[in-house]
Write a structure and sequence with these properties.
- This protein has four domains: 1-138, Arc Repressor Mutant, subunit A (Orthogonal Bundle), CATH 1.10.10.10; 142-247, Arc Repressor Mutant, subunit A (Orthogonal Bundle), CATH 1.10.10.10; 259-308, no CATH class; 335-410, no CATH class.
- The protein starts with 9 loop residues before the first strand and ends with a helix.
- Strand 5 and strand 6 (109-114) form a beta hairpin.
- Helix 11 (276-291) packs across helix 12 (298-308) and helix 11 (276-291) packs across helix 13 (310-359).
- With 414 residues, it is an alpha+beta fold.
- The chain has 16 helices and ten strands.
Length: 414
C-alpha cells in the first residue's frame, strides 16, 4: 500500500456495492478506498489491513497537516457507526463498513477490517463488478466526485466507440450520493454543489470525460439526468470513433425523447423517420400546451403531435404573432417618437412667440396683456388676478403661459 510502489493500486467493487445507499465524507471515502485497494483478487477472507498515516498523507498530499493522525483516528471512529444499505431484489440489507479497528499507539499505524457481511461485495469477484485504478480518484476534492465516477465507471463496459451514457432519476441520485432531503432542496443548489464540481473533477482528472448532461423535466421540475460520457485515450484525450464526423450529431434528440417518456427504440426510430426540426417544434408545442394544462398523457400527446406535425402550424402562428407584436411595438415606438418631436416643435414655436412678445416695448406688452385678460375665460382671468395681487409673475403658471401663447398666435398673429 505504499505510494512509492510501482504496482498500481486497484479498486474492485461489486456493482451492488457501488449502487448501495450510504453517506460518507471525503475523508471517510478516501480511507475506505485505501483499505479496499489492499484487497487481493485471490483473498478468500478479509484480513486485518494496515494503514500507515504517513502513506495516507503522501497519497492525498496532506503532509502539512500536523493533526492528521488525530483526524484519521476520528474518521475511523465515525466510520465504525456508518450504515450502508444494500438491495438484493426485494431484500434490503443494512450493515456497517468496519467490524474491527486497532490503533498501535506511537507507530502511526491503524489496523482495520471490513465487516464480514461485505465479503460478497469485495472478495472473489467474478462477475457484475467494476474495477479502476486508485490514482483516478486520488486527487478528488469533492465527496460526490468519487460516487459519481464509480456510478459512471460501472456503465463503461457498454461503451460503443468510446462513448456511453448513464440515466439517473434525480431523487435516486440524491440517495446514492447521500444527500439529505434538507440539503440542497432546490435543484439548482444540488447541481451547483454536487453535480457540477463532480463533472469538472471527473473530466479533468480521470479516464472519463462527461461530454454533456441532459436534464429531463416532468412539468417544470427537473426529475432525471442522462450523463453522456467519453472514455479517454491513454494520452488523456477523448476518444473519437473512427470515421466519425466531429460535428454535433443527433443523439441529443433521442435522449430528449427518452426523457419525455419515449422508449429508446421508438425515439431512435423517430430520429431516423422525422427531421430534427419537426421533432423539436412538436416538443416545444407539446410542452407549451402542457404548461397551459392541456396535456394529460405527455408521451401520447407528443407522439400524435410529431406524427401529424401539429407544431408546424403552431410554429407559423407563433412566428406570425411574434412578428405582429414586434410590428405593434414598432408603431407604438414611432408614435411616441413622433409625439415627442411634435411636443418639442410646439415648445420651440411657443418660446419663439413668447420671446418676440417680451422684446416689445413695455407699453405695447401691457396693452396685449390686457387684451388677453379681457378675452380669456373667467377661471383663467381670476387666476391671473390672484397671481398679480400676490406680486407673482403670471407666466410662472404653465396654464396661463399656454393660453397666452395660443392667444398670441391665433389673435395677434405672432
Amino acid at each position: 500500500m505504499k505510494p512509492s510502489s510501482k504496482k498500481p493500486l486497484v479498486i474492485r467493487k461489486s456493482n451492488s456495492l457501488i449502487e448501495a445507499r450510504y453517506s460518507l465524507s471525503l475523508s471517510e471515502q478516501r480511507l475506505l478506498l485505501l483499505l479496499a485497494s489492499a484487497i487481493s483478487p485471490d483473498d478468500e477472507d478479509f484480513m486485518d489491513y494496515e494503514i500507515r498515516v504517513t502513506d495516507f498523507a503522501k497519497m492525498f498530499r496532506l503532509e502539512s497537516d500536523n493533526s492528521l493522525y488525530k483526524k484519521v483516528e476520528e474518521t475511523v471512529d465515525k466510520l465504525i457507526g456508518k450504515v450502508i444499505t444494500l438491495k438484493k431484489g426485494e431484500i434490503v440489507e443494512k450493515t456497517v463498513w468496519l467490524s474491527y479497528v486497532r490503533y498501535i499507539k506511537g507507530s502511526g499505524i491503524i489496523q482495520l477490517r471490513f465487516d464480514r457481511s461485505l465479503k460478497p461485495y469485495l472478495l472473489q469477484l467474478k462477475s457484475h463488478f467494476t474495477q479502476y485504478n486508485f490514482h483516478q480518484v486520488i486527487n478528488f476534492k469533492s465527496q460526490y466526485s468519487i460516487r459519481i465516477y464509480e456510478l459512471l465507471k460501472m456503465e463503461a463496459y457498454k461503451a460503443n466507440n468510446g462513448q456511453f451514457k448513464r440515466f439517473s432519476e434525480v431523487d435516486e441520485l440524491r440517495l446514492l450520493l447521500g444527500v439529505a432531503k434538507s440539503d440542497y432542496v432546490q435543484f439548482n443548489d444540488f447541481k451547483k454543489r454536487a453535480i457540477d464540481p463532480a463533472i469538472k473533477e471527473i473530466s479533468d482528472k480521470t479516464d472519463l470525460t462527461i461530454a454533456d448532461v441532459i436534464y429531463g423535466k416532468t412539468s417544470r421540475k427537473i426529475t432525471n439526468m442522462t450523463f453522456m460520457v467519453n472514455i479517454k485515450h491513454k494520452n488523456n484525450s477523448a476518444i473519437i470513433p473512427e470515421n466519425q464526423d466531429t460535428t454535433p450529431n443527433t443523439a441529443p434528440i433521442i435522449e430528449r425523447l427518452v426523457t419525455l417518456g419515449f422508449s429508446l427504440e421508438t425515439a431512435t426510430g423517430y430520429e431516423k423517420k422525422y427531421v430534427i426540426e419537426q421533432i423539436e417544434r412538436n416538443i416545444a408545442y407539446t410542452l407549451e400546451n402542457q404548461k397551459n394544462g392541456l396535456v394529460k398523457n405527455l408521451p401520447a400527446y407528443l407522439n400524435e403531435a410529431i406524427v401529424n406535425d401539429y407544431g408546424g402550424a403552431w410554429e407559423i402562428k407563433k412566428k406570425s404573432d411574434q412578428e405582429q407584436v414586434k410590428h405593434n411595438e414598432k408603431i407604438a415606438r414611432d408614435e411616441k417618437i413622433k409625439a415627442k418631436e411634435m411636443e418639442q416643435a410646439v415648445k420651440a414655436i411657443n418660446k419663439k412667440v413668447f420671446d418676440y412678445f417680451k422684446s416689445l416695448p413695455d407699453e405695447q406688452q401691457a396693452v396685449i396683456l390686457q387684451e388677453f385678460i379681457e378675452a380669456t375665460d373667467d377661471f383663467t382671468s381670476v387666476t391671473i388676478k390672484k397671481l398679480q395681487n400676490k406680486g407673482q409673475d403670471i407666466f410662472k403658471s404653465a396654464m396661463v403661459l399656454s393660453f397666452f401663447n395660443s392667444f398670441l398666435k391665433t389673435q395677434k398673429g405672432f
